[in-house]
Amino acid sequence: MTHDPHAAERQRYRAALAGLPAIPRIVFLLHSLDCLNYEQIAFRIGEDVGAVERHFATALKHLVREMDGPPQ
């Protein structure tokens, strides 16, 4: 069995994502994984672009805080 040096990091990332409220998590994933822009996301979730920007900022701040903190 091969040791995966990034397994713990991926687990922390998944846990950080799971700790997000639903809408910021959805916005982050639609933008980051599906490569949708804020206008496309706003249309999909029924909110204005400003709200999408705030949700993305919330998600990003949370993820940075969780990933930069000490390992758990």
TrEMBL record:
<feature type="domain" description="RNA polymerase sigma factor 70 region 4 type 2">
    <location>
        <begin position="11"/>
        <end position="63"/>
    </location>
</feature>
<dbReference type="InterPro" id="IPR013249">
    <property type="entry name" value="RNA_pol_sigma70_r4_t2"/>
</dbReference>
<dbReference type="InterPro" id="IPR013324">
    <property type="entry name" value="RNA_pol_sigma_r3/r4-like"/>
</dbReference>
<dbReference type="Pfam" id="PF08281">
    <property type="entry name" value="Sigma70_r4_2"/>
</dbReference>
<dbReference type="InterPro" id="IPR036388">
    <property type="entry name" value="WH-like_DNA-bd_sf"/>
</dbReference>
<protein>
    <submittedName>
        <fullName>Sigma factor-like helix-turn-helix DNA-binding protein</fullName>
    </submittedName>
</protein>
